[in-house]
């Protein structure tokens, strides 16, 4: 009996620690998004995009702590019920954990600290908001963006999270899990949701000046720092192991440990295949090896495999990643044709490919159905897009969301932040 209890205590400690380390890896994705976006915007908008990324991460953490986690999982406002997992004291916590572990069995469901669960979930919220930041770059007012961040991280995302990962019914009408919806680590729940919010903002915001000519020509506006964008991509690639690996929710038994290893393997394979496919496809289309397309191809592979990284074979994961790499190039070109200006390709990478990721789940996971995936995708998109559109529209009417033409020309670094990222290059 004592031996069994000690094993359960060790299992709880291992699974909680694993959760926390994966959360830390996902938190590091905030640095990845910052570097990627800072590299793909023009030098005159660098400070502002970095400010946005730091501020959105901080706001996401606070809003999810105040009310978001409670909406999504019921952790209490200000997480008032999360200390000691709701137990009255440390001894009661031990007793509750041992009872829950005994009920689950050694190789049953995961038992871990609720505080670790919060930490792991909150970095996902920040990821969803980071997607928006790049899409609206170079022409959105900083404070309008931050005001939207409060609403998305505190209300919009937690609501759809409750319907999906927490299994609650959608306004009492239907339950996605019962329909055969499955999204392992968030291709739809996180990535497509972030892209849906971004699309609503971009449609109301309009394109950057000079991006599209009256005769329909698309002018490329190159980023200022491609080494930084490449670094950002590698940081995201690394962080994604926590994103997908942590979503197994357990490590401390043979089957779970093997599942984690397969998730890491498939995540890496999909990213690599996405990068190669985008590189080759861009070479065929443009006769040049396009670095930005290659970077977005790697990210597309990662987004595609996120919906189900545990059930595909390594070959299937590689194929899925390669298809995603081609899709993202086509999507970026199609959005430009439609005059939807997305400086970093976020809507294509996270939205279009996020939807593709949901659609391929039933190919390897018999518990999911195509109809369930389609209904789930539609639910996420309609909810996030419509609520985001309302919020963006309200902000547009109340405080305005776009900087003036003069401020856009000078760069939002000066107008919003009062400093430049690279002053030595512009001043004598």
Overview of the structural elements:
The chain has 428 residues and is an all-alpha fold. The protein has one domain: Ammonium transporter fold. The protein is 70% helix and 0% strand. It is built from 15 helices and no strands. The chain has helices at residues 2-40, 46-73, 90-104, 114-135, 142-164, 187-205, 226-245, 254-286, 291-306, 314-337, 346-359, 361-364, 370-398, 405-410, 412-417. Helix 4 (114-135) packs parallel to helix 6 (187-205). It is globular. The model has no long low-confidence stretch (mean pLDDT 95).
Task: Describe how the helices and strands are arranged.
Layout: H1 2-40, H2 46-73, H3 90-104, H4 114-135, H5 142-164, H6 187-205, H7 226-245, H8 254-286, H9 291-306, H10 314-337, H11 346-359, H12 361-364, H13 370-398, H14 405-410, H15 412-417
């Amino acid at each position: 009996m004592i031996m069994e209890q000690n094993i359960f205590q060790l299992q709880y400690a291992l699974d909680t620690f694993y959760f926390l380390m994966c959360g830390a890896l996902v938190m590091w994705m905030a640095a990845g998004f910052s570097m990627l976006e800072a590299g793909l915007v023009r030098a005159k908008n660098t400070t502002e995009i970095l400010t946005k990324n730091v501020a959105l991460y901080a706001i996401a953490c606070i809003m999810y702590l105040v009310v978001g986690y409670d909406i999504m999982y019921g952790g209490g406002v200000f997480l008032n019920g999360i200390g000691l997992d709701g137990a009255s004291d440390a001894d009661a916590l031990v007793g509750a954990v041992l009872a829950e572990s005994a009920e689950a069995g050694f190789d049953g469901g995961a038992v871990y600290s609720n505080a670790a669960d919060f930490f792991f979930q909150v970095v996902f919220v920040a990821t969803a908001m980071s997607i928006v930041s790049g899409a609206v770059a170079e022409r959105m007012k900083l404070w309008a963006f931050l005001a939207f961040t409060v609403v998305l991280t505190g209300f919009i995302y937690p609501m759809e999270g409750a319907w999906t990962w927490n299994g609650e019914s959608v306004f009492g009408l239907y339950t996605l899990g019962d329909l055969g919806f499955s999204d392992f680590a968030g291709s739809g729940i996180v990535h497509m949701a972030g892209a849906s919010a971004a699309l609503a903002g971009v449609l109301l915001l309009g394109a950057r000046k000079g991006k599209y000519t009256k005769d329909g020509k698309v002018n490329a506006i190159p980023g200022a720092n491609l080494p930084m964008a490449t670094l950002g991509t590698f940081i995201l690639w690394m962080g994604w192991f926590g994103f997908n690996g942590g979503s197994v929710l357990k490590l401390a038994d043979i089957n779970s440990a093997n599942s984690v290893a397969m998730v890491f393997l498939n995540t890496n394979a999909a990213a690599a295949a996405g990068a190669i496919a985008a590189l080759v496809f861009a070479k065929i289309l443009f006769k040049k090896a396009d670095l930005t397309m290659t970077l977005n191809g790697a990210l597309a592979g990662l987004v595609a495999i996120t919906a189900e990284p545990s059930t595909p074979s390594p070959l299937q994961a590689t194929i899925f990643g390669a298809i995603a790499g081609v899709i993202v190039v086509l999507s970026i070109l199609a959005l430009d044709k439609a005059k939807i200006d997305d400086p970093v390709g976020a809507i294509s990478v996270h939205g279009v490919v996020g939807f593709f990721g949901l659609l391929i789940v039933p190919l390897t996971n018999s518990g999911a159905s195509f109809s369930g995936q389609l209904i789930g995708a539609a639910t996420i998109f309609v909810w996030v897009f419509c609520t985001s559109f309302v919020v963006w529209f309200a902000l547009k009417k109340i405080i305005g969301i776009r900087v003036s033409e003069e401020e856009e020309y000078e760069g939002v670094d000066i107008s919003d932040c009062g400093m430049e990222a690279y002053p030595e290059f512009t001043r004598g």
